[in-house]
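Two entries, shown back to back:
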Amino acid sequence: MIQLQCSYLVRETLSNLATMSNECTDPIDLFRTEAYHDDIQVQLRAVKKLPTLAVALDVDRTRHELIPTLENFLDVIYYNNDEVLMVLSEQLGKFVPFIGGVEYAFILLPMLEKLAATDDTCTREKAVESLQHVASLMSG
């Protein structure tokens, strides 16, 4: 009887852990968890890992799920932390291969344009560099 109860409890615990694990293992959900964290260092780490995240996703998921997530993230943090914005500006400049190539590069332009309009000089300069890089890829 006791063995049967223990077996049931172990199965139920494993089932609960599997459910929790499945809920927490989506890379985009993990990014959101870190990106919206109160600690700026955690946010920076999340943004710096964007290329790795994009590689883990396929180009379709990056275009259709990660890019909208980044647009929302940018709207939320726009006035909060210049360092995170600067790193995001830099990372977006490297994103053309992750979204399917030059054919889809235009998807990055609205975020980079918004970042290029910030008050912070360093963020603005990084965003302009990234815009120039993306534009050069688009032109040829």
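entry 2 starts here
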Amino acid sequence: MSGVNDIRSTFLDYFRKEGHEIVASSPLVPR
């Protein structure tokens, strides 16, 4: 199982490639 940071990095890299804006304050994983 990948670490949360690995998943988050992959997720953000994907969105950057798609041209989406990255909102740093937005939580990736719901609490």
